[in-house]
């Protein structure tokens, strides 16, 4: 039984690491693997299982922080990563800075504080996640269809504050479970004539502090449900999410310029069909929440 529980924890960590930053909705995948298969209410106990999900999400967050660590060090002017002036110039080259990130974080931060309880109460269900997955997929397809062949900015350093704010607004929309934070923000960036790569870079760089704050706050609120005899599960899940997250983020960033968003959108639609079959066809959706 102990070995089985450890395997479940590792699987959940792998799923989280694979899907947290990809535009496919980690929420939708956790429903399939957790609620429809692993039955998390029997895994560590319902509330402890919830804190376990927070811990493995932190694993993914730290993976994103590690991938973009030089960017964060540069924006914070730490050590050798402090931005340097361009050769032969007294002025620094145009670079992404903390203000871009803060401007992008404002919409989701404000709406999160105001409506977090409402969202959790009314939107965290399988049907609402299915809606988010499907509509988000259509939005991603639209972004690819109407994106310009010669996008601008080509790199994340060329983004302006208006673009950062509008992308932040789309991140707020992704508070609807299943819509996908990265799916909505990358699509919005592409529709604003950013390249897929620059939109993805900004999405991931902005997501780390947002997710770190949200996950950290949730962990503090649920600290009482963390038990010493579960620490091994937390460590395994965290490491699985971190390692797989590193691989997933680097792979996605190397592919996005070539494959664009449509393949991920098609995958999301297929996922909706699978969830619908499991949820409605086999009657296992009763009592399942996202």
UniProtKB/TrEMBL annotation:
Q: Where in the cell is it found?
A: Cell membrane
One Pfam family name is BacA
Reaction(s) catalyzed by this protein?
di-trans,octa-cis-undecaprenyl diphosphate + H2O = di-trans,octa-cis-undecaprenyl phosphate + phosphate + H(+)
Tell me where it mainly resides: membrane
One GO MF term attached to the UniProt entry: undecaprenyl-diphosphatase activity
- Family assignment? Belongs to the UppP family.
Function comment: Catalyzes the dephosphorylation of undecaprenyl diphosphate (UPP). Confers resistance to bacitracin.
Instruction: Give additional notes from the record.
Output: Bacitracin is thought to be involved in the inhibition of peptidoglycan synthesis by sequestering undecaprenyl diphosphate, thereby reducing the pool of lipid carrier available.
Q: What is this protein called?
A: Undecaprenyl-diphosphatase
- What organism is listed for this UniProt entry? Staphylococcus hsinchuensis
